[in-house]
Design a protein that fits this description.
Blueprint (H helix, E strand, L loop, with lengths): L17 H23 L3 H27 L5 H20 L8 H22 L1 H28 L2 H21 L9 H27 L6 H21 L3 H11 L2 H35 L7 H25 L5 H9 L4 H6 L1 H34 L4
Helix pairs in contact: 1-2, 1-3, 1-7, 1-10, 2-4, 2-6, 2-10, 3-4, 4-5, 5-6, 7-8, 7-9, 7-10, 8-10, 8-14, 10-11, 11-12, 12-14
Length: about 375
């Protein structure tokens, strides 16, 4: 007799465990630090540095998501190694504010630890198939990237930037030259894990609202501005979830195993980079808007707010396009339309927040109406003639 489909062995992931959620909370601290870095110094140089750090960090977070998708942290040995990996991510987070200055060594060391734990746990616990893929596929390039991060952390500015940029180039190329098709992806666990990281990151954007209010006199107008910021975060949540997380799980499961790894890299790697980068930018922009409830914001502050929402929508379009779920047209139009709110921010900061809310709600409404019409047409076609 066959085992029920829901049966999980001790080494097979089911749903996301509380330890993985705990790990994600530590990882999202890096998102908080990147948001604070941007909010405190909104310059082109700081923005590019935040983008570079997020690319490196997210690659290794993705590695842990793939790891626990294949190897459930059910034993004391595995849980202990995951804890060490959490410590590495914490070190990276603490180093972020001055990673291109005095704490670059800590960023590099933390990154190397995170990589070493990931590779070691995969080889030790992932079985012959996972070990073979790690040793002959992504493992050696990952080690090179970790060494570049470590060495770069001890070198002066231009060398550090150059080595870390080279690391990002390698992580972009690796999935297209390594046999990632050998990884066995469990769609239910994989989709849930990445959905949780999005919702936790959005939660951190709400913390940014609270940080923006600190030190200000609380009145009804300030509360209104804070609620508008919360509403932007809520609508961003709706964009990603909105009932489509189940569709994403089914879509990923419908892809043949040999191609599923490549699709997972694009949908939950590159597309999620822009989703998370959009959250970082938008959170920094909302923090500044709430911090200046009366009057206008600067051009940089208005751009980072609108640009963050735009990047988030573009990332969602890429994500859905890879998995072939949902509609793309209205979200692509929305990604362009939100940029048009920048002049409003230059006149009156709260006006930009109102405009963003109106545009996102209109986009979702039109999308819902279009989906409803398609369902009605499908029902008419399926209805038997009388």
């Amino acid at each position: 007799m066959k085992e029920p489909a829901s049966h999980q062995t001790p080494s097979t992931p089911g749903r996301v465990s509380t330890l993985e959620l705990f790990f994600d909370l530590v990882f999202v601290f890096t998102i908080t630090q990147l948001t604070a870095l941007l909010a405190n110094n909104l310059t082109v140089a700081t923005t590019l540095r935040a983008m570079l750090m997020l690319a490196l960090i997210l690659w290794m977070y993705g590695g842990y998501a793939w790891l626990t998708n294949s190897v459930a942290p059910t034993t004391r040995f595995r849980r202990s190694l995951v804890l060490i990996g959490m410590g590495g991510f914490l070190a990276i987070s603490l180093a972020i504010p001055d990673a291109f200055g005095s704490t670059g060594w800590l960023f590099g060391l933390g990154y190397f630890v995170v990589n070493a734990v990931h590779s070691g746990l995969f080889v030790a616990s992932g079985g012959p198939g996972a070990a073979r893929v790690m040793l002959t596929g992504v493992g050696p390039p990952n080690l090179v990237v970790a060494l570049l991060a470590l060495i770069g952390g001890f070198l002066p500015g231009p060398w550090r930037v150059g080595l870390w940029l080279l690391g990002v180039v390698i992580v972009i190329v690796v999935p297209y030259v390594s046999p990632i098709g050998g990884f066995n992806i469990t769609p239910s666990h994989f989709v849930e894990r990445h959905g949780l990281i999005i919702i936790i990151a959005l939660g951190e954007s709400i913390v940014a609202i609270g940080a923006g209010v600190v030190g200000q006199h609380i009145d009804l107008f300030l509360v209104l501005v804070a609620v508008l910021g919360l509403s932007v975060s809520y609508l961003m949540w709706w964009v990603y979830f909105g009932g489509d997380d189940i569709r994403a799980e089914h879509a990923l499961g419908a892809i043949e195993p040999a191609r599923r790894g490549r699709a997972a890299v694009e949908a939950y790697g590159w597309a999620h980079y822009f989703l998370l980068l959009g959250i970082v930018f938008a959170a920094a922009g909302v923090k500044k808007a709430v911090g200046h409830p009366v009057g206008h914001v600067t051009l940089a502050q208005a751009l980072v707010l609108a640009g963050g929402v735009s990047l988030y929508l573009l990332g969602d379009v890429w994500f859905r396009r890879v998995l072939r779920i949902g509609q793309l047209r209205y979200r692509a139009i929305g990604a362009i339309a939100v940029i048009l709110t920048v002049p409003l921010g230059l006149l009156y900061g709260v006006a930009q927040l109102i405009a963003l809310n109106v545009l996102l709600m209109a986009m979702l409404y039109r999308e819902g109406r279009a989906a409803s019409r398609r369902r009605d047409l499908a029902d008419e076609v399926e209805q038997p003639a009388t």
